[in-house]
Task: inverse folding
C-alpha cells in the first residue's frame, strides 16, 4: 500500500507552537490533508508522552480516528545541531528519556529538549534504545548538521554508518543533497516541521511510502528500504523559497556570491550588515559533483506548496486564510483530501475557476518561476499566467 507520512512535527509542549497542536486536532487535520502516518514529535516530554500512551497502540504506531502516530522527537545537541529520532515503543522512549535526564534540564520544559551531548553520543543512546536517528533539516543554516560539519562522519563519528536517513528540510531538495557522494546511500525524508495544524503547515512537506502494513516495523523497513518497503515520492518546497537560499546581507538583503562574501569579510559594503552564507553556496562547497547524481533507489521529488497558498496566488489574494480562499479549499477537498487534489486527481475532475486549475497544473509540472530568497528574506514564487492581482510573496513559512 502507498501511504503519506509527515514524520517531523511539534506538539503544544514545544516553544513557539500553537496550542492547537494536540492529538485530536492533529488527527483531524491530518485526515483532511491526506496524511496516514504523523510523527508525534516531542515524545520525551512527560506530559505529551502521557497523552500519546492513552491512544490505542497498533503494531508500534498509536491510532486516533484513522491517523497513525509514530513516536518521534527532535533534540538539540551541545553544538546546536538538531537530530530527528524515531522510536518503536513507549518503553524505549522512557529508556531514552532516562539516559538523557542527567544531560538535559529541559526535558519537561520544551518538547524539543537541549541535550548536553554531541551527535555521536546521542546516536549511541538512540541506537541502544532500538531507535533510528538522522539529522533534522540537514541544510538549515542555523541548526542543520551542515552548518557545523562537513560530513556525517564528523558529526556522528563511528555511528555515521548507522544513520539511515537525512531530513532535507525546507531549505533543500533531492537535487541539492544528491551532489554529496556520502548521501547516495541514505534515504531522504521531506517533513513539515509543523508548529500548527493548519493545512498550509501540517504536511507542507511529506513523503509517500510503499509499505505492506501500517506498522512501525514497516515504517522502519521503508526508511531502510528493505523488504519491498521504500519511499516512492518526496514532496516539498522549492529550496529557492527559503529565506537563506542565496548568500545575502541580513540587513538590506542584497545578494552576493560566496567569493564576494569572503572578500568583504562578511560585511555588506552598502549597509555594513552581516552577510550570511546561503544554502546554495554551502552545498557548492560540500558537493562532490557539479550536478546531482541520483542513485537508482532515489524517488522523484515534486515541488509543491500547500493548496490554500496555490489558491491564494491564483485568485490574487494576499492571504491563504481569507474567506474566499478557504471556501474554495473546502470545495476542492470535498470527498477527497488535499494531497489527492495536489498530486493524484485528474484535473478534469476538479470543480474550480480555470485559474485555480491552471495553477495546480503549473505546480505539478514545475512551470512556476522562483525568485530566490537570502539573508532572512523569503523567496517569491510567481505563476506562468497572470493572476487577478499582483502575485504575492511566499511568506509565513
Result:
Amino acid at each position: 500500500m502507498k501511504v503519506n507520512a509527515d514524520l517531523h512535527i511539534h506538539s503544544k509542549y514545544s516553544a513557539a507552537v500553537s496550542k492547537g497542536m494536540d492529538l485530536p486536532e492533529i488527527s483531524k487535520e491530518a485526515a483532511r490533508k491526506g496524511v496516514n502516518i504523523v510523527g508525534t514529535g516531542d515524545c520525551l516530554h512527560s506530559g505529551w508522552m502521557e497523552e500519546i500512551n492513552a491512544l490505542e497502540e497498533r503494531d508500534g504506531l498509536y491510532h486516533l480516528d484513522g491517523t497513525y502516530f509514530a513516536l518521534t522527537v527532535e533534540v538539540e545537541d551541545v553544538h546546536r545541531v538538531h537530530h530527528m529520532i524515531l522510536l518503536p515503543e513507549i518503553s524505549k522512549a522512557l529508556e531514552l528519556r532516562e539516559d538523557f535526564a542527567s544531560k538535559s534540564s529541559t526535558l519537561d520544559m520544551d518538547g524539543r529538549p537541549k541535550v548536553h551531548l554531541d551527535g555521536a553520543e546521542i546516536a549511541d543512546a538512540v541506537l541502544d534504545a532500538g531507535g533510528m536517528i538522522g539529522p533534522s533539516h540537514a541544510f538549515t543554516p542555523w541548526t542543520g548538521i551542515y552548518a557545523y560539519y562537513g560530513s556525517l562522519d564528523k558529526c556522528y563519528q563511528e555511528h555515521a554508518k548507522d544513520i539511515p536517513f537525512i531530513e532535507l528540510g525546507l531549505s533543500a531538495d533531492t537535487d541539492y543533497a544528491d551532489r554529496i557522494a556520502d548521501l547516495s546511500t541514505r534515504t531522504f525524508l521531506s517533513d513539515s516541521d509543523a508548529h500548527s495544524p493548519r493545512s498550509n503547515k501540517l504536511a507542507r512537506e511529506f513523503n509517500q511510502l510503499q509499505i505492506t502494513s501500517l506498522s512501525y516495523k514497516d515504517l522502519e523497513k521503508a526508511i531502510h528500504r528493505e523488504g519491498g518497503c521504500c519511499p516512492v515520492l518526496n514532496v516539498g518546497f522549492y529550496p529557492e523559497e527559503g529565506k537563506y537560499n542565496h548568500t545575502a546581507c541580513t540587513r538590506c538583503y542584497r545578494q552576493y556570491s560566496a567569493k564576494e562574501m569572503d572578500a568583504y569579510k562578511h560585511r555588506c559594503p552598502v549597509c555594513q550588515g552581516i552577510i550570511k552564507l546561503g544554502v546554495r553556496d554551502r552545498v557548492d562547497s560540500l558537493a562532490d559533483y557539479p550536478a546531482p547524481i541520483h542513485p537508482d533507489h532515489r524517488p522523484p521529488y515534486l515541488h509543491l506548496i500547500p493548496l490554500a497558498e496555490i489558491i491564494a496566488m491564483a485568485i490574487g489574494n494576499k492571504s491563504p486564510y481569507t474567506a474566499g480562499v478557504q471556501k474554495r479549499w473546502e470545495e476542492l477537498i470535498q470527498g477527497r483530501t488535499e494531497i489527492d487534489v495536489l498530486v493524484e486527481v485528474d484535473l478534469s475532475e476538479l470543480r474550480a475557476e480555470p485559474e485555480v486549475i491552471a495553477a495546480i497544473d503549473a505546480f505539478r509540472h514545475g512551470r512556476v518561476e522562483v525568485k530566490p530568497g537570502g539573508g532572512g528574506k523569503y523567496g517569491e514564487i510567481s505563476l506562468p499566467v497572470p493572476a487577478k492581482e499582483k502575485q504575492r510573496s511566499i511568506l509565513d513559512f
